[in-house]
Write a structure and sequence with these properties.
Strand content: 5-15%
Strand order of the largest sheet: 3-9-8-7-6-4-5
CATH class of the largest domain: Alpha Beta
Distance between the termini: 63 Å
Number of strands: 14
CATH architecture of the largest domain: 3-Layer(aba) Sandwich
Number of domains: 3
Bound molecules: pyridoxal-5'-phosphate
């Protein structure tokens, strides 16, 4: 069994390392004043005065107390923590990109714009969409952009009264949150006994007020919504739009396309599916793609190609306006572009296939462990991720999903996503991705099994964890589920 001790540095926060020196070098102020109006030139800046080497050591120590996808398996379900290629960093460092200015006239950055344009074309090919914006800074931001497009579309078509967005109860919290931020009412529909969208509930939820539906496929239980064409028909029947939450694209990329499933708008989480760093590792990117009839609604500036030139258009007829400065999170976009052109179409198919195989291999081993149950249809194949429930373990021993997750840290393993989706009690959602080797998955399962055995033998050893980490168990703020998802589909029936 692996032994693990995380580095423990009693490292103060950076502001306690040196005294706060507020002065700025006169020379810097003088040079800045030449370019910046005087009232904006900072004369003082409170940053700690620390030697360079101490600063480096500060951050190195912090990284040693952290976990990363380069340290081990990171099976954070729905987050797709996969290998971030290193050659990409190397190439980026060679490119003189930092010499470009975002306000440079487009005719001086044609090469750069051609990369972005080509990338948009690849995204269209992969998703079955007709046009893309690269601006949104994350999946959730993409959702918000999509929701604004839905809103504007109905306004333009004289249907402003359409004020409801349907989301399944398995949806990620960002779906109803984005819809709510866009000013919509949320209509939550239940999953059926298989864990899929309940078609009858959906039928009773739709009405003239339906503006659209947000769906991820495979859903957050890792199940492919096999009735997606029927779902699309139902939503379109009442002139609603279907939004694809691309968080789970890694399960199908290269094999199936949301555009062919009837989706009108999609986002792609580049920091998940296309192997760029995310979480604490850097900003994200959530490009949004639409079918042709929604192209004029995309944010501006919109990158287009006309007369042999790449241009930034501000004249889209129904644009929702600006959603991000300049071109989006370029560092992430370029990394994803390089990832894509390096793997190519055939390997992309192998990548998603391996992600699904790894997930099913892990699942088969996981469900043999005492106290671990597989909710919903056990006979339906899971895709790139799966969700188990530790409800039985909790009932038998008092040890919760949270306790097991904390104990995994003691072995230097990253826990899966926990307590999500909300429809599974004591949920654990695993997504090993294609980056995991069989040996890594086997080791993970062995350790997981040992933790469960310990929970049955001596629950306190699990409940009091973690002990080997630089930070012990911290206080948690427990809350009940917010009521934002109401009203439900039942309420809808009463609406005139
Ligand atoms: C299913 C699902 N939808 C949406 C999101 C939001 O994506 P992002 O974290 O890029 O904002 C996530 C994030 O994990 C997710 O799992």
């Amino acid at each position: 069994m692996r032994r693990y001790r995380q580095a423990k540095w009693d490292e103060p926060i950076i502001f306690d390392l040196g005294h706060l020196d507020e002065t700025i070098d006169e020379k810097i102020i003088e040079i800045t004043s030449k370019y910046v109006p005087n009232k904006y030139v900072r004369k003082k800046l409170a940053i700690p005065d620390i030697p360079k080497t101490r600063t480096i050591r500060h951050f190195m120590r912090l990284t040693q107390m952290n976990y990363a996808v380069d340290l081990g398996l990171y099976p954070l379900g729905s987050c797709t923590m996969k290998y971030n290629p290193k050659f990409v960093e190397y190439i980026l460092a060679q490119l003189p990109l930092s010499n470009l200015h975002p306000l440079q006239p487009s005719e001086t950055i044609q090469g750069f714009l051609s990369i972005l344009y080509e990338f948009k074309k690849y995204l269209c090919d992969l998703t079955g969409m007709d046009a893309f914006t690269l601006q949104p800074a994350a999946g959730a931001h993409g959702e918000y952009v999509g929701v604004l497009i839905i809103k504007k579309y109905h306004e333009v078509n004289g249907n402003s009264f359409k004020d409801e967005i349907i989301v399944p109860d398995s949806a990620h919290g960002t779906n109803p949150a984005s819809a709510k931020m866009g000013g919509f009412k949320i209509v939550e529909i239940p999953s059926d006994k298989h864990g899929l969208v309940d078609i009858e509930a959906l039928k009773s939820a739709i009405s003239k007020y339906t503006a659209g539906m947000m769906l991820t496929n495979p859903n957050t239980l890792g199940l492919f919504e096999k009735n997606v064409l029927e779902i699309s028909r139902i939503i379109h029947e009442v002139d609603g739009l279907l939004y694809y939450d691309g968080a789970n694209l890694n399960a199908i990329i290269g094999w199936a396309r949301p555009g062919d499933m009837g989706f009108d708008i999609v986002h792609v989480n580049l920091h998940k599916t296309l192997g760029t760093p995310h979480g604490g590792g850097g900003p994200g990117s959530g490009p949004v793609g639409v079918k042709n009839f929604l192209k004029e609604y995309l944010p501006i500036p919109y990158l287009d190609h006309k007369g042999g030139e790449y241009i930034l258009r501000e004249d889209l007829k129904y644009t929702i306006g600006k959603v991000h400065g300049y071109y989006g999170n370029i560092g992430v976009i370029l990394r994803a572009y390089m990832y894509l052109i390096s793997v190519g179409g055939d390997r992309l198919k192998k990548i998603s296939a391996k992600a699904v195989v790894n997930s099913n291999y892990m699942l088969k081993k996981m469900v043999k462990i005492k106290g671990v149950e597989l909710p919903y249809d056990p006979n339906m194949p899971r895709m790139h991720e799966f969700v188990v429930s530790l409800k039985k373990l909790k009932n038998d021993t008092g040890v919760t999903t949270r306790d097991v997750a904390k104990k995994l840290l003691d072995y230097g393993l990253h826990p899966p996503t926990i307590y999500f989706p909300l429809i599974v009690e004591e949920a654990m959602m695993f997504e090993p991705t294609e980056s995991a080797s069989k040996e890594e998955i086997d080791e993970y399962i062995t350790i997981f099994n040992k933790i469960i055995e310990d929970a049955y033998r001596n629950p306190s050893t699990v409940k009091n964890s973690p002990n080997n980490t630089s930070v012990k168990r911290i206080d948690e703020a427990y809350g009940s589920r917010p009521k934002t998802m109401a009203p439900t589909y039942r309420w809808l029936k009463k609406r005139a």
